[in-house]
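Model the whole thing, not chain by chain.
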Amino acid sequence: MASVVGIIFSNIHDKNVSELTRRRTMASVPFGCRYRLIDFTLSNLVNSGITHVGVVTHYNYQSLMDHIGTGKDWDLARRSGGIKILPPFITAFANTQNSLYNTRLEAMKSMIEFISSCKEEYVILSDCDIICNIDLGEMINAHIASGADMTMAVKRMYITHDVRNAEVVESDAEGRITDISEANGIVTGYRDINLNIIVMQRKYLVNLIMDATAHGYDSFTKDIIAKNLENCDYRVYRYDNYFAAVNSLTDYYMCNMDLLSSSARDSLFNVKNRPVYTKIRNSSPTTYEEGSNVKNSLIADGCVIYGTVENSILFRGVKVGKNTVIKNSILMQDTLVGENVDLNCVITDKDVVIRDGRVLSGHETKPFYIDKLTVV
Amino acid sequence: MIKKKECVAMLLAGGQGSRLYLLTQRVAKPAVSFGSKYRIIDFTLSNCINSGIDTVGVLTQYQPLALNEYIGNGQPWDLDRTFGGVMVLPPYQGQKRADWYKGTANAIYQNLHFLDKYDPDYVVVLSGDHIYKMDYSAMVDYHKRMGAACTIAVIDVPLSEASRFGIMNTDENMQVYEFEEKPKNPKSTLASMGVYVFSKKQLYEYLIADEADENSDKDFGKNVIPAMLGAGEKLFAYPFKGYWKDVGTINSLWEANMDLLGDRPALNLNNGNWRIFARHSSNPPHFLGYGAQVENSLVTGGCEIYGTVINSVLSSGVKVAKGAVVKDSVIMKDCVISENARVEYSIMDSDTVVGVNASVGEAKDAGKGIALVGFGLNIKAGTKVPGGAMVDEAFLASLEAGKEEA
């Protein structure tokens, strides 16, 4: 296989779910009982044989560093290559405006040293909030075979009037990109959406960044890709399996609930040779006590359940007391729910305590979010 | 030598565990699955690292492949160290001789050069087939305080069962004056747990002497400990209070699994202060469908349950289909219990498929005993496996033949 280095942007789209990213990066947002969002991208890279990965960080990245550690849970603790966290780079005394970068391109400008010092021929850029199980090896091979300057993964999805934060990609019969634009509420129907996974030659990327620095560009899609479409050969790579993007707290809720369908689980978790890795916590197995009643729920290890749980997602170490009824909810790591509690459409962040007898409810279009370490 | 270790553990993991029959046909006893996501050896390895002992020699002999692979570089237990860590020590061919390990004492004797490298003051000798959580460092402290040559951990057992164990007879200061292996008329109820702390000097001395004795069985319990007592060395019993279980038989393995269940389990695994580490495969979270009814059971990653699971321990990746019932059973990795099948009072090794409407085992109250089902079997639809059966390919074939005749 071609030699490839991966670069992941960990703070991208933080604002989409500001509740969840107040104390963490988008990359370390908990998802699906035992994962963090970055696990999907990291696993996709590792499962495609890409073992040199840079993670671009911006702020709030303590939780991300905790999660990644040495990288050994993804088999990325390596002598050569492996995972590297790239903290924001500011030249001493140079930063008079006291501001950090905000866009992908600005982030890359500060990572230029890392990118230039890599030995790999190709580079794959990926966002951290791409929930899918994609064979990147196949994408890279398609890129090489086509001889394109750049290849972008897209997925055909139905666009409604209220979709924002998505980039619509138009391409011709050969897969050459003809236009790229932000969803504006006017374009609707089945469209190819940019998954923000991009492959190109590393040297090509270095040149793009140099050029962008010289011209003072700041948007990768608008200033570079869109402007170069006529002169350069940019292509799409079509992916059409399970994909979820988290654009809002409601999206976050829905994407988690998606996992209650076996088809979503099968195409995300049960793909041969492509397991999803995460940090190992050595939780004990989950204990179901006498009288527990759990239906249609996805449960991680380390839980102790006495009560009733339906249509819910329980993260590691959640405790559910007697006579408690939890429905349509997401309870993150180590949430403690007492006795006689009633929860419906609630998202509890890590280490939340719900005292005995509390009744809390949101609605599936507006789940009720409880911040980390809150006692209710 | 620049570096040394105060304490090194030697873990005896070579036993065949023949009383576990089908479960140990392919793997050594310490590698047998236990408690949903563990192997038996995880408890001893985790005890070591939790006690601050980071140098462990694992002595293997019988069917070592699975065990070697499982231990690997020791990373799951934090035993991948630059100096020390976990090392698998198989029997080897030396310049003068090549020998299997002839007994527990001989196994350590053949690896004295391993101990030399770390120059420990104390050697903890452990066996890899017990389920317990124990702080060895407290025992080493006790050993030092008593100025003992050897300290043996003991647990109080009921007098009626004492004749199954090695019994320590001690004076009021817990100094051992007599050791009796499986005595008919036990004088005390302090049973040896197979956990020893030796001071290095005496360990070397008595191992070398024992090796020279042609009549010796080269066993710690039978030979080395009695020899030390005979020579007047100071041996102390270290009383351990807590859960301890030898899982050498099908019944005790089943019981130990059941001891993890309930509101206040006899052995609580859900304790952050003394975690039991294990090597993980990347299983997704487990899923319980609409028809699921799971009570008083342990379930872990990768399981998909649409049927009924009661009083049971399920390992990773077990599928229980709609209408299927699993009761009072231990089901190991990746087994499939198909629709309307029934498994009762059984231990089932991994990768076995129970077909539609088939039944395995009989209710616990029926008194037929535990049905033991081997690895990777395909129990065809409608098959009825009686309680207490030992199910392997041959058994299934004869069951099939019997059905055709009838």
